[in-house]
C-alpha cells in the first residue's frame, strides 16, 4: 500500500524549470509479507518527489503491534507471535505502511544475517529446508566458512565487503559457521 501526500517541510533545491521537489511518496518495500516467529527481514524505502525522482529524506519505522512483530527505527523486522501487524514508515510529513503476517509453527523460507563489527546477527537462525539465507557484508571484510557437515552450502571465501551473498540450505541439520578473518565470529543455522 502506498500513500501519497504533499509536504512543504522537506528542504530541496529548485529543479530546472522552476519546480521545487516535494516529497510525495515513501515507496516502501518488503522482501516478503510473511515471517515465522523469530524470523527476520529488512524493510526499505525509496522516497520520491512529484516527478518520480529520488529525493533525500530521513525515514524511520514503527510497528503497529510489538506483540506480533517488532521493527527497529532502521526497518529490521522480527516476528514475535502469530498474527498480523502493520509496519509504518515515517518520512517528512508522510506515513506509509506494509502488512506483515507472522506464522506460528512454521520456519521461515528466507533469513537475513548481518555482520556487525565482530559478530553475526542473529547468532542462531532457524529456517525451513530449501530456505535462502542472505549474508549482508558491511564495509569491514568478513567471510563465511561452514563446518564440514554433509549438506552444507558452499563457503563464502576471501575478504568480502559491501555486498550481499545468498546461500540456499537444501538439507536438514545444524550448520555451524565462522569467519576465518575474525575467529570470535561463530554462529549457527538450524534447518528444519
Secondary structure: helix percent: under 10%
**Which overall shape is indicated by the principal axes computed on the Cα atoms?**
globular
Main sheet overview? 5 strands, mixed
Q: In percent, how much strand structure appears in the residues?
A: over 45%
Physical arrangement of strands within the biggest beta sheet: 14-20-19-16-17
Report low-confidence residues grouped into runs of 5 or more. 1-12
Report the mean per-residue pLDDT as an integer. Answer: 88
Our measurement of the CA-to-CA distance between the termini, rounded to an integer number of angstroms, reads 33 Å
Counting structural domains, the number is: 2
CATH architecture level-2 label of the largest domain: Sandwich
N-to-C SSE string, H for helix and E for strand: EEEEEEEEEEEEEEEEEEEE
Topology, number of strands: 20
**The CATH top-level class label of the largest domain:** Mainly Beta
Radius of gyration computed on alpha carbons: 19 Å
CATH superfamily of the largest domain: Cupredoxins -  blue copper proteins
At the fold tier of CATH, the topology name of the largest domain is Immunoglobulin-like
What structural category arises from helix and sheet content?
mainly beta
Question: Quaternary state, please?
Answer: single chain
Amino acid at each position: 500500500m502506498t500513500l501519497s501526500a504533499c509536504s512543504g517541510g522537506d528542504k530541496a533545491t529548485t529543479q530546472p524549470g522552476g519546480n521545487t521537489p516535494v516529497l510525495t511518496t515513501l515507496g516502501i518495500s518488503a522482501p516478503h509479507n510473511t515471517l515465522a516467529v523469530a524470523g527476520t527481514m529488512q524493510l526499505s524505502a525509496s522516497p520520491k518527489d512529484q516527478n518520480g525522482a529520488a529525493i533525500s529524506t530521513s525515514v524511520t519505522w514503527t510497528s503497529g503491534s510489538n506483540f506480533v512483530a517488532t521493527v527497529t527505527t532502521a526497518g529490521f523486522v522480527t516476528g514475535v507471535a502469530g498474527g498480523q501487524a502493520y509496519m509504518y514508515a515515517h518520512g517528512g510529513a508522510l506515513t506509509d505502511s506494509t502488512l506483515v503476517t507472522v506464522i506460528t509453527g512454521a520456519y521461515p523460507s528466507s533469513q537475513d544475517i548481518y555482520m556487525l563489527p565482530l559478530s553475526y546477527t542473529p547468532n542462531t537462525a532457524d529456517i525451513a529446508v530449501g530456505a535462502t539465507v542472505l549474508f549482508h557484508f558491511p564495509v569491514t571484510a568478513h567471510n563465511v566458512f561452514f563446518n564440514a557437515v554433509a549438506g552444507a552450502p558452499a563457503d563464502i571465501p576471501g575478504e568480502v565487503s559491501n555486498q550481499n551473498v545468498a546461500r540456499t540450505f537444501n538439507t536438514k541439520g545444524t550448520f555451524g559457521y565462522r569467519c576465518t578473518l575474525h575467529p570470535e565470529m561463530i554462529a549457527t543455522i538450524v534447518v528444519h
